[in-house]
Amino acid sequence: MILERKYQILASLLTGSKLHLFASAIRVEHTLFALPFAYIGMFLAADGWPGWDKFIWITVAMAGARTVAMAANRVVHQKEDAANPRTAGRHLPRGLLGKREMIAAMVVSVAVFFFVASQLNNLALALAPVALAAMVLYNYAKYFTWLCHLILGWTDAIAPAGAWIGVTGSLDPEAVVLAAGVALWIGGFDVIYACMDYDFDKSYGTHSIPRQFGIPGALLWAKVMHLGASAALLAVGIMLELNAFYYAAWVGASALLVYQNAIVKPNDLSRANVAALKINTYVGLILLAGVSLAVFL
User: Which domains does the chain have, with CATH numbers?
Assistant: First the structure.
């Protein structure tokens, strides 16, 4: 009966309206943050095209990992989202989707992720439980530490590191530096995003860098983290001896990081959403274009 109930829940998610709601709930469009860096890790590890099999498996792995992470986020933070005016309109607080539906999607995505890891190599399969645990447990970090933004960053950094492992079966120093750059980039823009919840975090008791250091201090943290991200991405180009296409993309991406920090002020957070979400989509895409040109040409 329990198994039958899970199948019914999963079937309901696959109907047209439910599928649309689920895609909206887990922010499928925000996969553009992490997917380019998975492809960057994949192309750099292969020094070119890795083959259709690797490309397809890594893409499916990213889809599964993204679904696990976001579904877990919505389930773990359901009560908190309902209490926060900024997030009260999300699908679970409004009852548009149920917790069981989210959990069913997570279970299926975990199975897909394990299967894909088994098709890549032994190291990818061995580390799959670690990656999945990080994707779920990072959601609890804000209840215990203001370092939650860095924990989120390192969780997202699994994308390029995992893709690298998927291609080579090893985690090389260049992959670690690339992952560090992604972790600092994601963590930095999450700090900017968290500034919008400064008052809520203080009243609700959740931890964040804005709550710990105030909004001016948090924005300084974001700048330092993005400076570190830019330096790490520059180091990747030097370590791998990439050509001018990569450095041109690095300049463009770094300029966008400077711009997103410039448009958010301690006394004016009206553009924080634009800085943290829209601009960062272009950062990943620009770097992916630069890497693609560098390795293929």
Answer: 2-296 (1.10.357.140)
